[in-house]
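Narrative of activities, Objective 1.

The group set out to show that a structural description can be obtained from nothing but a protein's sequence at a throughput compatible with the screening campaign. Below is one input-output pair from the validation batch, recorded exactly as produced.
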Amino acid sequence: MTVPEIMVYSTKQCMYCNNLKAWLAQNNIPYHAIDVGEDPVAAREMIDLTGQRGVPVIVIDGEVIVGFDRPRIEALLNIDKGKDIPADHELIIIGSGAAGLSAALYSGRKGLETLVIGGVRGGMITRTADIENYPGFYRISGESLMRLFADQAEDAGAVILDDVVTDLSVRDGTFVVETLSGRVFTAKSVIAASGRTPKLSGVPGEAELFGKGVSICTTCDGPLFKGKRVAVYGGGNTAAEMALEMSNIAAVVYLISRSPLKADLVTIERLKEKKNVVIMTGVVITGLHGEGVLTAVETAPRQDLANTTRLPIDGLFLGLGLTPNSAVFSGVVGMNSVGEIFVDENCRTDVPGLFAAGDVTSVKGKQLGIAVGDGIKASLAAYEYLRK
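Output recorded for this entry:
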């Protein structure tokens, strides 16, 4: 059997890149890694090959795949991922972020036969370059912290499957979970810990230029814009932290917010100390421009949208907040108007045996520490349900 030639274009802190490379290693698939954050010649090669300014990019025997498109990669490599994992389980945790992995650690230690299914191991927090508010760590990257979480969960006996849940149903008191790779699993109990996804702006030109200068991840794609002019759109903590990160990479960073900044005061003060950060408040982006690659954004005062200005930039990072990943639970469990799953103080939903934790829930605080605590609470509640 001929061994395929595989090249992976990536950056050091990109969670999707690291998950892709870990997945290849777990399957004993050799590959050649190219760090486009450190090698500008390789970055240009990748951009010329794909038209993309985002990672990862994997090339298998000359066929280009943008992003960690597991079903397509598995098809090219003839891999049946997860074939050795049994179909029936006591507990399935949907989501492998902070809440899901914390729940898996406790359920594993309690002796529950646990399967964790998540598309991005570590979840959104792996995009954070520096975490300074998690007890016990003065400073640690999100990717490093989540790797510790996953290692602990697996050591406790939980099985983690890198896949995406596409459907959840309840049949005769049993939960049926279907995945993107075509697998079907059942469980006596489920914990929804699927987190949130970054919002898009809906600005004209965004769809055409996404991945071609428009990005949602400074940690992943930021190194590709070294020495360039970039903008960050948003005014909360997410956008402010993106701008801080890019201030150490780009020549100029425009932080564009439709309202006064709502980020933490300490973060705003750090931004004001940066000489290459330009803060633009009361401003909206009305259009994106570029033929095949982003070259400019069109902006206007929020109160005078007809008075537009074209701002030349090379990259735009969206920091507009997050939307709950709750679509697969729609029609199964109670939610509020924005799609957050209702839970009580013990992470129980209105469906017996279905629990929820983390950012996908109606709990007000969306913080790492809260997600961890609620993941543990959900696990203990599921254990009590299964052993009653």
